[in-house]
Amino acid sequence: MNLKPLRKAAHLTQQQLADKSGISRVTLTRIETGACNPSLDSLRALALALGCTIDELLGESIAS
User: Fold this and answer.
1) What does the pLDDT look like over 1-38, one tens digit per residue?
2) SS in 3 state form for the chain?
3) Where exactly are the structural domains of the chain?
4) Is the separation of the CB atoms in 34 and 58 below 8 Å?
5) What pLDDT, on the 0 to 100 scale, is given for residue 1?
6) What CATH number labels 3-56?
7) Considering the entire predicted model, what is its pTM?
């Protein structure tokens, strides 16, 4: 999961990303540390808030 690097690259704190995505800061912390896996709805919200794709968020490379 590339959540923390993408969040840092966007210059967002966990609280700012929580506010943008509608996901609680505690949940973001748990996702970043691997303590829980995000739901598909959470992945969509995070990708939208970070301006990336779900594949990028998950660390998947897109073959060309």
Assistant:
1) 899 999 999 999 999 999 999 999 999 999 999 999 99
2) CCHHHHHHHCCCCHHHHHHHHCCCHHHHHHHHHCCCCCCHHHHHHHHHHHCCCHHHHHCCCCCC
3) 3-56
4) no
5) 87
6) 1.10.260.40
7) 0.89
